[in-house]
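Progress report, Aim 2. The chain analyzed during this reporting quarter is listed below.
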Amino acid sequence: MNDYRPIERAPAGDGSRPAASMIAGGAAAGAADWIRLEDVSLVRSGKIILDRINWTVSPGGHWALLGANGSGKTTLLQLLAGYLWPTHGRITVLGRRFGQTDLRELRKSIGWVGSFLQVQVPFNQRPLDFIVSGKFASIGIFETPAEADYRLARDLVERLNCGEVLDRPYGVLSQGEKQRLLIARALIAQPRLLILDEPSAGLDLLAREQLLQTLEELGRAAAAPTLIFVTHHLDEIMPVFSHVLVLKAGRILAAGAKDQVLEPNLMSAAFGVPLEVTRNGPRYWAGIRTRHSFLRSSF
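Predicted structure tokens for the chain:
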């Protein structure tokens, strides 16, 4: 686990990406470099967004990513998916080093579940078509899917316990049902990395627990993709997530085994408020520490 030492600030830069010719080819890094960020910084308009990030994810490892609003979580995800280019440092994702691989091809192996997609889906979209569209990275069907694509979509909805929604238009589904369809859409392309950007946001208690159980089962399945799960809430970090990365103001505050990172001092530093952390079985909860009591909160 990292300590609290200051991280040297990166020099200013424009963070622009290299020319297309610099990302041609397909050289792969060593097997140990499944996901690795080495001294990565991102600067925009003279402001340091991410500062000297060093992080390694091993094959088969599942990580939770914690941090307050504005800590750099989404920016880090965009770097992993190749939508942003670092100002400084080296990035390897799925064994492919940026600058030596075609990022467009790499993204075909990365699934992304985020609520931003939901607003782009037509009200009358058929759930099966929505799932199959994930194979083509589109919203809607503009190519001719194979029957095998629809069979796989049906298998996924059964696996994710949402087969009962297939006869209803997307627009009438609950938030929890839509989120499970988003996961199915991400999985149809058989990704090797699945990024889950606050997938339980806006869900009621029951829908949230159902979704979290779905993620638990997904992460424990044979040949599961590497999961990176972004959340603000400790109690959403299911047992399948063995490691936690904590960001604060664009820097890594801590990274390591879950039982070492989810402790009161670190969590208080991460969220800027005195917190107590309790454990009930395999899950953790946090609450604001007061003079006379412990108030369980949404942390």
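The radius of gyration is 20 Å. Residues 75 and 248 are 13 Å apart (CA to CA). These observations will guide the mutagenesis work planned for the next reporting period.
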